[in-house]
From TrEMBL:
PANTHER family the UniProt entry points to: NICOTIANAMINE SYNTHASE 2, NICOTIANAMINE SYNTHASE 3
Catalytic activity: 3 S-adenosyl-L-methionine = nicotianamine + 3 S-methyl-5'-thioadenosine + 3 H(+)
Pfam family, one: NAS
Gene3D superfamilies in the cross-refs: Vaccinia Virus protein VP39
Assigned keywords, A-Z: S-adenosyl-L-methionine, Transferase
Origin superkingdom: Eukaryota
Enzyme Commission number, as recorded: 2.5.1.43
Organism: Zea mays (Maize)
Record-linked InterPro entries: Nicotian_synth, SAM-dependent_MTases_sf
Example GO biological process: nicotianamine biosynthetic process
Name this protein carries in UniProt: Nicotianamine synthase
Amino acid sequence: MEAQNVEVAALVQKITALHADIAKLPSLSPSPDANALFTSLVMACVPPNPVDVTKLSPDVQGMREELIRLCSDAEGHLEAHYADMLAAFDNPLDHLGRFPYFSNYIDLSKLEFDLLVRYIPGLAPSRVAFVGSGPLPFSSLVLAARHLPNTLFDNYDRCAAANDRARKLVRADKDLNARMSFHTVDVANLTDELAKYDVVFLAALVGMAAEDKAKVVAHLGRHMADGAALVVRSAHGARGFLYPIVDPEDIRRGGFDVLAVYHPDNEVINSVIIARKMDAHTKGLQNGHAHARGTVPIVSPPCKCCKMEANALQKREEMATTTELSI
């Protein structure tokens, strides 16, 4: 335990120093100094660490919240910079690899798709929403091009300039230009529209404070269609210094059945939570038997053992249903 405390203290000290240096930057736009600092920050947060950022002191919590806001602003500047660079090409999509973290989006999108297929068998979405798509909607682009070639994608972002940049990226691709649309709106103002989606993706930086994220999830739970899938990006461990951490219980309270939680151990930063909107009957049963399904599985990447894990999940669901029917 003492060794873990020392490890956590060393990490907090390092992150605190990086936060101080980042806060002093004259601009969060890409530059040698900014790039070096944010690279150091990511490298500090990726290795496994026993830290639980939700249990750190109030001062450190305040530093973490400000750091996440700085990371969000810097990410916006970085994506806008590269969106403008890519837009100068005749076909911007041919040059996406110029973005330094493009391979991470490839891996994250494949992971999310594999988890969806794994935990919602037979899923063939006709329409998908991505909330918080930004000026470089890599996730939608990769999912549409590589995994869901017959699906329509509606991308939502509050920033009109971000959507204008995103539209330029698909202008030369006849297929994606026809299947991807971009809407300038706050998710809190989406109501009836949400019922038409088979899957809704919630970006990591939408509703950055924990209580705001819970409100967004509850809003989605009120308006999404019964049985629709929700994919929420979260963070775990030291990666919680970069992105907000989403409590699966907040997703359950929002009216969803949480099917799986995946925490990466490689260069992919975001955790992934897969959930499904409950109908009124199922929600009533869960409220009456809150622990019937047992612990949400913390899963490894889809692999040859997936069938065993999926079968185990199915058995738990069958046992819960049997229990509910017998009461």
